[in-house]
Amino acid sequence: MSGTLGNVQTFQATVPLSVQFESSTDSIRMTAVSISGQPVALNLQGLPLPPVIQTSFKADKGLPDGLELMSLIEVNESIVCPDHSQLEYYILHPEPQIVYIPNFVTPEEISHLIEVTKDSFTPASVYRNGVTDVDSGHRKSENAWPPRDEVLQCIEQRARRLQQLDSGLEVEPISVQRYHVDGFFTYHYDQFAAPPNRRNRRSTFNVFLEGDCTGGGTHFPRIPRPTDPNWCQYIDCESTEPGTIFKPIAGAAVFWLNTRDNGTGYDETLHAGMPVKSGRKIGMNIWFWKDFRKYFDSAKDVNTQ
């Protein structure tokens, strides 16, 4: 143990950690939160969740319609990467587990990712009913996919090892997002509204690469804001919005689990990219998938014995 953040213990531990994380790409579970095409912040405290667009899954691969050809990647554990076994982290919420990692990526990695993607950004799309399209009423940002070079593979490996106790994870191709003034991503889930006995996004790493802006935080309206004032260096303690807003601080990552061990999703992971008021924000999403069909197959075998 290396110290405390107020009442919150901080740790420096050797991988594997008993920490798990969760997130998304162009395939998401959207909630409609706009009026006349303009995003609005909803006060969701004590209210039922907004309706979620359902997706249908093919029986063969267990992937949503329109994403059957998406490649899930097995993390390269053989590549030799810089040692990040002593990452400091703070647990903000126990279930669903939400963890803040102040220095998840290095300044050199950030510079590399921004450089290799600077000329390849295109308007970001949203996924609904098996179709991806651009809808600036729900999402106003740009996406780029960096080449899977050694830098990216080492980031994948680092994220995977932080979830070492979670078996059978594969990673979605990593995407970088760029938000200019008025850019946002309204309230949504990274996991799909799918039957639990399918593949789904198990966890998310929401990584901040550049945060030279006002606004642009990641908002979890259903996660209570911690009362310890020491958290205010990482979260917006002056906001009047319900829940917790993580500040876009370059190098930091927010990790969370999207689904339980049995494949059902956490309603509490509803989140949004808040509008950028000035400047620019660049982020990166790392989504890990898990095939929950194996869980159901093994449970069926046990029940029939």
Task: Provide an overview of this structure.
By secondary structure, the chain is mainly β. It has a single domain, classed as Sandwich (Jelly Rolls), CATH 2.60.120.620. The protein contains three helices and 21 strands. It has helices at 107-117, 150-161, 293-304, and strands at 3-5, 8-12, 29-30, 34-35, 38-39, 88-93, 98-101, 122-123, 126-128, 131-133, 139-140, 142-144, 169-171, 175-179, 184-189, 199-215, 218-220, 244-246, 253-257, 271-273, 276-291. The strands form four sheets. Strands 1, 2, 6, 7, 8, 12, 13, 14, 16, 19 and 21 form an eleven-stranded antiparallel sheet that branches. Strands 3, 11, 15, 17, 18 and 20 form a six-stranded antiparallel sheet that branches. A two-stranded antiparallel sheet has the order 4-5. A hairpin with a 2-residue loop joins strand 9 (126-128) and strand 10 (131-133). Mean pLDDT is 80; it is low at 1-60 and 299-305.
What are the main properties of this structure?
Jelly Rolls, disordered C terminus, mainly beta, Pro_4_hyd_alph_FE2OG_OXY, 6-stranded antiparallel β-sheet, 305 residues, 11% helix, disordered N terminus
Low-confidence stretches: 1-60, 299-305
**CATH architecture label:** Sandwich
Secondary-structure content class = mainly beta
Helix and strand sequence:
EEEEEEEHEEEEEHEEEEEEEEEH
How confident overall, as mean pLDDT? 80
* Overall strand count: 21
Domain Fe2OG dioxygenase: 170-290
Protein name: Fe2OG dioxygenase domain-containing protein
Cofactor: L-ascorbate
Organism: Coccidioides posadasii (strain RMSCC 757 / Silveira)
